[in-house]
Write a structure and sequence with these properties.
The protein is mainly α and 296 residues long. 78% of the residues lie in helices and 0% in strands. α4 packs parallel to α7 and α7 runs antiparallel to α10.
Length: 296
């Protein structure tokens, strides 16, 4: 019996048949997982397009919110506020993220390991906790020093900037590690300092990857709502002042989707569609620009 079992196990035809079955089973599972993942994305996009396309009109882009209970109104305040928050948050988060990535890529010290660990922890902290942190660090002190100016654009941008840092930092570190050592050694051999080698040779060589990381970070913060509830707060009137509350599309979507009025539900769907297509357009433009650069 043992002899026949050994023969069956070693029979090449039986072994090949088992391999084909296992291979087909794994391919089927991977294909099913891919279909489920892509299907969820397609379902979300389809729901937004079907529900929101009828709500998209010129008023959505040119008018602010209507008084509560009245039909009409638009998302102008939220669109402008989102762009302002993303711009100011990028000014805060991008330099810190890139410089942090430069430090991590060039250091093997224990401190660098601790910073890397803390960066990963920061990346996994829920955004609402970071919003609470910004509330304690920025909003409350500002309220004490300048009563009436607690919730501001600066506070919202500060919270979004913190959210950007870990993504940009780790992406920059990984991209810088991919640059061939020959470039660094050649620059140093010509007499350039470490700093000049990094900023004149290594960073330009890895620019495309760093830009991709920055776009990913911007796409992540574009839809954040929780931090803005603690910091920017929202504003029914049009305002771009840095020391005033400001509206944002994620705040509009949250507020309108939970309201009892049908017209506001349509505005929430329109806002979600604008936000999704803004992120999608940003990703596509970046890929198109990088592909053209690589093709040269």
């Amino acid at each position: 019996m043992t002899h026949s079992f050994t023969r069956a196990r070693l029979d090449p035809r039986t072994f090949a048949g088992r391999q084909r079955i296992v291979n087909g089973l794994m391919i089927g599972l991977c294909t099913a997982a891919t279909i489920v993942s892509v299907g969820a994305l397609v379902a979300v996009l389809g729901y937004l397009v079907v529900g929101g396309i009828s709500s998209i009109n010129l008023d959505v882009f040119t008018k602010g919110p209507a008084p509560q209970g009245e039909p009409g109104g638009g998302l102008l305040n939220g669109i402008v506020g989102t762009l302002e928050l993303l711009g100011l948050g990028s000014v805060f988060g991008i330099p810190l993220g890139i410089l942090g990535g430069v430090y991590l890529s060039g250091s093997r010290s224990r401190l660098a390991g601790i910073v890397r660990l803390l960066t990963d922890v920061l990346n996994s902290i829920p955004s609402i906790v970071l919003g609470l942190f910004a509330y304690v660090v920025v909003v409350l002190p500002t309220a004490e020093m300048m009563p009436g100016h607690a919730f501001t654009v600066v506070a919202g941008a500060f919270a979004l900037g913190i959210l950007m840092i870990p993504t940009i930092m780790r992406t920059t570190e990984e991209i810088l590690r991919l640059v061939p050592n020959g470039l660094r050694e050649a620059s140093l051999a010509l007499g350039a300092t470490e700093a000049r080698t990094m900023f004149s040779v290594i960073l330009p060589a890895s620019r495309d990857g760093i830009i991709t990381g920055v776009v990913l970070a911007i796409a992540r913060i574009a839809g954040e709502t929780a931090p803005l509830l603690f910091t920017a707060f929202g504003n029914m009137t049009f305002s771009t002042a840095l020391d005033q509350p400001i509206d944002a599309l994620p705040l509009n979507i949250y507020k309108y989707a939970t309201s009892p009025y049908e017209s506001l539900h349509h505005l929430a769907l329109a806002g979600a569609m604008i936000l999704i297509f803004f992120i999608l357009s940003l990703s596509l433009l970046t890929r198109f620009a990088l592909r053209n650069r690589m093709a040269r």
